[in-house]
Amino acid sequence: MPRQRRNGYTLLEMVAVLAVLVILGAIIAPSLAGFYGNTKQKAAADIFRKRLAEARAKAMERGTPYRVAVHSDQTRIRVGPDTENFGTGTAEDPPSYGSVVTEDTLDEATIELQLEEGDERPSDGSEWSTVATLRPDGSSKEARSCTVTIKQSTFAPIVIQVRGLTGQARNVPQTPGGQQ
After folding, report:
1. Rounded to 5 degrees, what are φ and ψ at 44?
2. At 126, phi and psi to the nearest 5?
3. Distance (Å, rounded) from C-alpha 138 to C-alpha 133?
4. Which pLDDT tens digit goes with each residue over 144-167?
């Protein structure tokens, strides 16, 4: 009786195909990581600008000053009413527009506040550094501008200037060498 042939692949053929797929994956994986680039850094910059605009809107809507601050660990942004207990109030999770206090933790990016020379922002004794305090009329309590730098590993930093008196934010263009 002749032996019947079965349709299918041998174990050797399956191993060969898997080996080719592993080699292709090893070649493609580094380029995929480069494709995503500094998306976490750009997201952090977007969150910061969003929270600054949100603080202005809440101050105008609720008739009370709202503060935007960065934590000394350089990974958190906080928005809340400008009171003595700004740094100790409980932030709502997840944050929404209806939240009184919001706090964001940056993912793989850091945020650093740089003040102009002679700029002494009042401290409430907490680990939060005030970027801007927005008043109900939409203006900023701080007279001097400040700069916020958002960094992610080896990428050029994103620099955002927050103007004094108005609290408006703008990106500071970077030259190819990373200089302002």
Report:
1. -65, -40
2. -90, 180
3. 10
4. 889 999 999 888 999 999 998 888
CA nearest to 69, candidates 127, 25, 14, 119 = 127
In this structure, how many other beta carbons lie within 10 angstroms of the beta carbon of residue 178?
10
Percent of the chain residues past pLDDT 90, beyond the cut: 52
Nearest to 66 by CA among 134, 129, 116, 16: 134
CA atoms of 175 and 72, how far apart (whole Å): 28
pTM: 0.77
pLDDT digits (tens, 9 = 90+) for 37-56: 788 999 999 999 999 999 99
Instruction: Please name every residue paired with 158 in a beta bridge, in sequence order, or none if there are none.
Output: 150
- For 35-163, list the strands marked E by DSSP: 66-71, 76-81, 102-105, 110-115, 128-134, 146-151, 158-162
